[in-house]
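[audit] Reproducing an earlier prediction to check determinism. Same input, same settings, fresh worker. If the tokens differ from the archived copy the diff job will pick it up downstream; this log only records the rerun itself.
[audit] input (226 residues):
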Amino acid sequence: MDITTINQWLVARGFSATGGGNFESAYAGYSVRVALNRTGGRVTAHRNSRRLDIAVFRLDQLWIDTHGMLRAAGLDDFFADIMKAGNPAPRWFPEGFRRAVYRDAERPDVPVEELPNAERAILWASENGFTRVGPRTFQADYADSIVEFHVGTSEIVTQMITGKRRELIMTKPIRSIRFDATGMIRGAGLDGYFVREMEIGGETPIWFNASYIEALESGIARPSMR
């Protein structure tokens, strides 16, 4: 999408232009801010002195759906979840999109174990220390690097970013990943590599939950092979 169309959509949906490609709107106690540049942008939510990074996107990732909703910019799913918790709809949600969110909220919850692998991987990353930086891409700090976990439609890609250098840790079909009894994702390159780093004195990754660490220490959990 071109930046002019995005600017027009934001203003039409109630965002105030604050200058320099920046836009702002209030929702559920948050100041929601969109910062645009020539190639992409960022959405953040601010409350008191805390900033929550919602998404980082490229302009060519964005589209407007059949409801008239801007998608893949971070203005949809995060705020739909807040809405489902009992808050009013954000002013930038078109009426058709609001109705779709309400219909979805009325459906019975699907147990996590029954979710498709891709959806479960996205949920796992969101709940285990990763920050969403794109529609299906997550990052977490590790030592002096950043671990990037991308959940594609057919495969996962895990990389280590150190400065300007990227190291591919794993790429694998979505169908090959699994989740063990501790809740740890397996076969995605997020366990074995980092277990070996821990064994030589490296730090414990933020996404290793307490149950998985306990299982490692007791010898019950064995890291996946690369």
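[audit] rerun output stored. Observation attached for the diff report: DSSP finds six helices and 14 strands in the chain.
[audit] end
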